[in-house]
Structures
1.
Amino acid sequence: MSDQTVRVAVAAPLRKTLHYRLPERLMTQAKIGSRLRVPLGRRTVVGYLLGFVKEETISLKEVVEVLDPAPLFGESLVPFFEWAADYYCHPIGEVIRTALPAGLGGAGREPGILKERFFFLRPLAGKPRGAKQQALVDYLRQHSGGTLEQIKGQFGEVYDSLRRLQQQGFVEESQRERQRDPFADLPAGADLPVEPSASQRSALAAVEEALDDQSFRPMLLHGVTGSGKTEVYLRSVQQVLDRGRKALVLVPEIALTPQLVGRFRARFANRNARLAVLHSGLSSGERYDSWRAVARGEIDIVIGARSAIFAPLENIGLILIDEEHDGSYKQGDGFRYHARDLALLRGKMQHATVVLGSATPALTTFYRVQKGQAAYLPLAERILGRPLPEVQLIDLTEQRPEGILAETLRLALQDNFEKGEQSLLLLNRRGFAPFLLCADCGVTIRCPNCEIALTYYQKQRLLRCNYCDFALLPPDHCPACHGCDMVPEGAGTERLEEELAALLPDAVIGRMDRDTTSRKGSHQKLIDGMSARRIDILLGTQMVAKGHDFPGVTLVGVVNADSALNFPDFRAAERTFSLLAQVAGRAGRGEQPGRVLIQTYDPGHYVLNCVAGHDYRSFYDEELNLREVLGYPPFGHLVNCLIAGNDEQRVMAAAEQLAQAWQDLANGIPVEILGPAPCPLSRLRGKWRRQILLKSTNRLALRHLLRHFDRLRKEVPAGVSALIDVDPVDMF
Ligand code: ADP
Ligand code: ZN
């Protein structure tokens, strides 16, 4: 053997991969998917080995070392990473760094590997003396050995007996790598066997057929809230395991959906299926362990949030995306990928079935179905013939509330509490009030770093920015007119909690928002309180709308449907429809039917009427027409070019210059260049922000244009940054 040439993606902002010489001494350790240390300029950086190439090694720089004992991903992921890098216009090394568990990207060594003592029987065993020793031997035979901890768990303090068995040659001891238990903090959840309904059966039959086909088959599982999508997920996963292949399950945010993970654990824990949960709540050591267990082929089912789409699982037969419409599948900074879109790509590359599940599919997903690009698996009814909740709009122009809640909603809450049933209230604003306002001159107190009013927190007596966390003591006098009448204006969850406590002093009220759930375990406590019916009313931001299954909830109230509708974003209607349909779907999931009350100043709005009628199709048709007129997705494709910096003049100048450059490039190509315009949040965390929108019905034309971005970016002056967001979701 002699030195070889390897192709390496370095963790640096470079578009291309580089070639290095792999010295003979590292040959046995280095594999595709290995993390390496390589020289780059005068530094050494982390790189990822993507392939071996036939090329002279003489002029090449040498790989310094191999960082992990085994590769972190297999060969099949290499084209996936490369495609993603190209599509999202992002450096390949950065793509891989984002994909790997956090903490591994830098130059650091791997987190420590835990060792534990493991005891097993030697093959020559005869009969030991004494009942205790015999029992130990039997145990070790049945379980093919055990760790010291497992043995202690079974027999108590038996170290002496173990020693003696060892001395007599019955038992041997070894050091074994210990897996940290990634489940330690998650509830197990119960798994009651159910008989699938007719529509669950037909969905499962379709999945089964696709699995047998072993080719890329995208499908939309469109199940109304409470239709039993989870059971379809669980059984589909069983189907793929039965066929000797593996499953990748993506959920929006693990921390917010513990019930679903619990059900997977409960179902598969006793079926010899090895399950790994990848989520941000794990320590970096736990994440590293799970990741490597997946890479070694020891895992059959991976469940995780967005970044799990990169899990190094081989032989994937099924990729499941729960709540596929959820905005959290799109990464908002750095490598801005969309996990659902990448799932479709990965499914295609690895010949897997991809099931997208939702009660309110993304417009683009349902459009795929209509175009015949995805199969349609409907679950049109709730399980056991339970009715969808009755939805009623409360017209606030007729029924002006004294505080936050209109009469109808107050009475309904009282009534529900007296009946001993649970209620849920959605108010998508944190704090006590969104503004502190001068009653004399109307000035609000704004964040000095962001283009936004500071939120008023009454209990803490604080004004705080929800974007950058800047905080200030509330002034007694208006900074503009020195008036002394500063009033909290509008309503947040803290104020709603106060009003509810006054309305129903005997009720147990839980509040779920980012402020009450920041401490570890606090979110889980609220969920447990709801499940055990200790909490009568749960109020909160959109966190309360996430896929919870609380059978005791019969009343859902939406405090204000309008703010979300009026958001300056072309997806505002889609987001509002899905948020309201989801939160409405929390009502009446048990034996008692549910009821939903929505407060609005605009009761004629088509979004609200579609929510009230549980009518996804009408919403879809209406919204699709608007999108077509405006050339927005799914008809046109968008790329957002964001320009930001500390100096407003420089940012504006750079944005103008970039827009002109895009215009010149787009000459004769079917791409529209819009802007530059200030971002809806024109200033954020001290940075001025402008955006240029590239829009086209032709993806190839767009991608052609993006190839020039590296060159254009080089001309952006110092102190200003420019970045690209392909298929943007948030355009604040
Ligand atoms: P979705 O995710 O579609 O809103 P879930 O999967 O949470 O609905 O199911 C709603 C409830 O119905 C759960 O409590 C679940 O255990 C129950 N369920 C699901 N399938 C069946 C079935 N075939 N028979 C009886 N109950 C079922
Ligand atoms: Zn701020």
2.
Amino acid sequence: MTDIALVTGASSGFGAAIARRFVGEGRRVIAAARRVERLDALAAELGDALLPLPLDVTDAEAVAALPGALPDGWRDVAILVNNAGLALGTAPAQEARLDEWERMIATNVTGLTRMTHALLPGMVARGAGHVVMLGSVAANYPYPGGNVYGGTKAFVQQFALGLKSDLVGTGVRVTDIQPGLCGGTEFSQVRMGGDAAKAAAVYAGTTPLSADDVAEAVSWVVGLPANLNINRLEMMPGVQGAGPFRIARD
Ligand code: NDP
Ligand code: 8X3
């Protein structure tokens, strides 16, 4: 019996790369996202080992019903990858849009929390499982315009550590993967409201991480012996580092 992984946000970027990597390693993957045609394309590429699952993680009822709604043979989810998430905007807090802040919280915090709440009891009952979060370096290092996005990822980090504490002795592992600058996904397109030039400028003149780098990290943490839990894994490209404090002078 192969492990079943449920990956949220599998229609793009990290989620699609993780789904491909897991299927390549012999796992079966439930690929969840809102853009069903993307998931269908992934299923056409990867075959029966991938089950497309139309899901909006901000839909409380759909997430709560998920464990019972999965088809027979797909219910024993051993690995949950809480990857669905987004940043919206780079404006300073005093100029930011409240609806964008609320959408980041609804997806990155509330959606991720509900997914975990829905699938964790099954893992504990089976005495094995792994919850992998896609956090960010933004949890650890503030930067101008990162305000609520960084706040959501700080929640993810502390939630993951809290889960780890609760789950001691249950056989369920928890890991927060914290990537830095990563190109080749739709993250910056989404953040810049679809402005392709602004999104491209984020990576201009750099060699950032790739989605495959992140998938490799996820694959590594879940493939480790069951007695070994990586709590947090922070990863940056060589071209990135933390900046200094900002000081306004007269
Ligand atoms: P992408 O924009 O390429 O992918 C985001 C995925 O999330 C999409 O598949 C999207 O699918 C899904 N998603 C968004 N909202 C929802 C929702 N309400 N319900 C279900 N799925 C949703 O971004 P990345 O792959 O780059 O990012 C993935 C994760 O990694 C995010 O949590 C992000 O914060 C984090 N991250 C990204 C970094 C980067 O530099 N790229 C660095 C560090 C962390 P759909 O629209 O089809 O629903
Ligand atoms: C995405 C990485 O540095 O843009 O989480 O916040 S960063």
